[in-house]
Amino acid sequence: MSSSFLNVFGKKLIPKTDYFPLSSLSGTSEEVDSRFIDESTQQRRKKDYSPGIVILLFLVSFVSFIALVMNTYFGSGNTSSLVNYTVESLTRDVQIKAIHSHNDYWRQRPLLDALSYGVVSVEADIWHFPQGLVLTSTASTTENQNGDRSFDSDELYVGHSSFYLKPNNTLNALYLDSIFNLISQANPEQKYQNKTTATFPGEPQYNGVFYDFPDEPLYLWFDIKTDADDTYTAVKPLLQRFIDKGYLTHYDTATKSLVKGPIVLTLTGNLPTELVKAESTRYVFLDGSLLSFNSTFDSSSASTLSESSQLSLVASGSLEDILGGAESYQNASRAEFTDEQATRIKDHIDTAHKYGVKTRIWGGINWPNYVKLAHYKTYYYIGVDLLNVDDLRQAADDF
């Protein structure tokens, strides 16, 4: 059984129960000192309890086995609904950190682990199958007894590869339901007793998912793995409840103004660029090309970058591309960045910042740790806004 059923941040959810004498199980209230009970009586009492203990252990093992099979085959689903999570219980006294949770759905508790560490950005790979999809195992093992895995045309699924998708791991179950519930809980309707709306000076228009930093938005990323236009068209209805509440940061093309909300939603991977461009109010943003932002651009490039800044709030780029190729990347994989490499990276970061665009670098070094942490420090020093991280605990604790 998943640890999320048993504890939250190391705190047991099952309340402590005082011990009581075994005599109370038999319906007697009299306590008897075992020293004055003959040996045969003691043995008989032990036998009386043995079947019950065996049955209890069997039931616990059986339930655990079923939960393991369901989680392995069907996916984790929305386990967050089993516990009454709130913004306060997740992020109170938690320092926010400029971390991007890469492939966040790999976590033990997608989204919730990231928030508990104060991570401001999470990414999920999403899939849509307009004709449905059926995965049938060809292995000659007992796995075939579980049957096919079927994926509906009216759902969006979360996973790194189509081969390992699970029917219960939907975008709603792993992310959207939890985010909507957390933010709604943090933003109750406020009215005076005469039914007029209550407002108070200094309070933000909306509270976000970080208790101590209510103005800080959550950067939510959907990495589109299937057809760009089709997948985005399927995503849009799922966003309507967030739009109705005013929770999504959006760009008004008529007034050329940015309206802030507690969520910044960015699309990456396969981009529906033309569909988003055509929208008068853009509730999603496109991952910009960090490689395009550099100080060597000419006047014609400037207008392109200006347009990009209206479509993108964050620009990303691979470390290998930014360093200029495989040779420089290989050199960086074994040591700290050279001054030349750091300067090259900083040029892209500074240029993006001139256009009001935040930055992220992916495809970095994950091992050895001393090189990875050295790169993190350089990124932070030169102004990278979101550190692309796989090991959240290490980045939160050691960096």
From TrEMBL:
InterPro entries according to UniProt: HAT_RTT109-like, PLC-like_Pdiesterase_TIM-brl
Transmembrane segments: 53-74
MF terms in GO: phosphoric diester hydrolase activity
Transmembrane among keywords: yes
UniProt keyword ATP-binding present: no
Keyword field: Membrane, Transmembrane, Transmembrane helix
GO BP term (any one): lipid metabolic process
Family according to the record: Belongs to the AIM6 family.
This protein's name: Altered inheritance of mitochondria protein 6
